Amino acid sequence: MTHHHTNRRAFLGQSARSLGLASLASTGLLSLSAPASAAVSDYKALICVFLPGGNDGDNTIVAREASRVSAYNAIRGGSGLALSGGQLMPTRASGNQAFAFNAQLSALDGLYVQGKVAVLLNMGNLAKPLTKADYQSGATVPGELFSHPDQQVQAHAGLAAASATGWGGRLLDAVGSNRPLDAIAIGSAGMFVQGNIHRGNLVPETGGISLSGFNFWPQKEADQRMDALKKILASDSGNRVSNAANKALTDGLTLSALLKTATAAPLAASFPGTGLGNQLKVAAQLIAHNAKQGAGRQVFYVSLPGFDTHSGQSWAHADLLSKLGAALSAFQTAITNAGLEKQVTLFTASEFGRTFAPNNSGTDHGWGSHAVVMGGAVKGGVYGQFPDFTLGGPDDATTRGTWIPTISNQQIGATLGKWFGVDAATLDTAVFPNELKNFNIKDLGFIG
């Protein structure tokens, strides 16, 4: 008979892998520490729904003012990308801005009519307001434009340069609640939730993490094995690296128990079985759980990849927006039924938009795009302006409809940060340092 002996190092390594803690620890996405931060008197949660790849805002929120419709059809019609008729929801008007949601976002259209959705036009990454002349002269233009990884980092940071932290995490640094589920990325890592003090946790789409080899019968023996593991982890090995690994696995066990409790309660909503649907279901469960614990703050990062639509955009983009609309609708229903409608705000974001001029059956990397903010605290309506649709015109950085944004990530973040409870001085100096001060308007007015 051959006996297989498992030493302590191998046992801990296997346990860490089964929990996924090795990768979490390496990316800094595992922490149950309680950092010191300002007290808050109520509960609020902020959710970033990121659309990696560069979402085509012009076919998400479609301009319907006559002159822009003419340009839209002339430029996009030949490629089959221009939407019309049954592909669009009814035209909505706010001031001199007329638009229609893509028909795949019918749920958002309904929420817009109820005043629970704000539409943000031509937003994107800026260091300061830019004219076309400024862009052509290279005056304070964000670095590495049109690069997916660089622009994703900058979008998460809310800054026009690389950063090790995200603006959601920095909001928590300013106004935190010292709880282990404050900063959560679900499904995939998102720097948005990483602060200088607060460190985020990465949670699977299933909402739970578990340790393999500890679920067997009789329960008494499984419990004895767990007790033995906890004693090993609690011991001081005298080695800093080993002690840090022990703490990571201990935190993972604690996080596992917390997630099991937090995701146990049923939700009064039916979520689609898509990746984004599963992520937002977990977010809704964690929000409902934390709200019951009293005053606090949470930030979440979820994502729906696939928006790099260089080809096959007509069907691929419609499929993606269908998944987005269904998941957002289910989330809003769950939050409303939980009585948390005014305490939870969700926004969409992407690293950049796409060119207005098609590239065969798709579009290329662009710059400015459109986004939405959703929730009971939102002041519904249209914020910002559609660009001039003239190729090579005053709003086009190139000759292909690469829109120069007129609303910045910092302005959007500062508006949401004010609602989150962060004072103006902290937003200016700590959350968006050296850049928010470049914008005269720091509160866009889309939220109470």
Task: Describe the structure in your own words.
The structure is a single chain. 36% of the residues lie in helices and 13% in strands. By secondary structure, the protein is of the alpha/beta class. The chain has two domains: 1-30 and 212-262, no CATH class; 31-208 and 272-438, Alkaline Phosphatase, subunit A (3-Layer(aba) Sandwich). The longest helix is centred in the last third of the chain and has 25 residues, at 313-337. The termini are far apart.
Name some characteristics of this structure.
12 strands; 3-stranded antiparallel sheet; 448 residues; alpha/beta; 2 domains; Alkaline Phosphatase, subunit A; 9-stranded mixed sheet; disordered N terminus
Quick take:
The protein has 448 residues and is of the alpha/beta class. It has helices spanning 8-19, 21-26, 66-76, 106-113, 132-137, 148-157, 167-174, 219-234, 240-262, 275-292, 313-337, 409-420, 424-431; strands spanning 43-50, 61-63, 92-94, 97-101, 117-124, 183-186, 201-203, 296-303, 344-349, 369-375, 381-383, 407-408.
Structural class by sheet pairing and helices: alpha/beta
- Tell me the span between the first and last alpha carbons: 71 Å
- Write down the secondary-structure element order: HHEEHEEHEHHHEEHHHEHEEEEHH
> Which sheet architecture does the biggest sheet show?
9 strands, mixed
CATH class of the largest domain: Alpha Beta
Shape: globular
Report helical residue fraction.
25-40%
The total count of strands amounts to 12
Assembly level: single chain
How many structural domains are formed by the residues?
Answer: 2
CATH architecture of the largest domain: 3-Layer(aba) Sandwich
Give start-end ranges of low-pLDDT stretches. Answer: 1-29, 33-37
In DSSP terms, counting alpha (H) and pi (I) runs of 4 or more, how many helices? 13
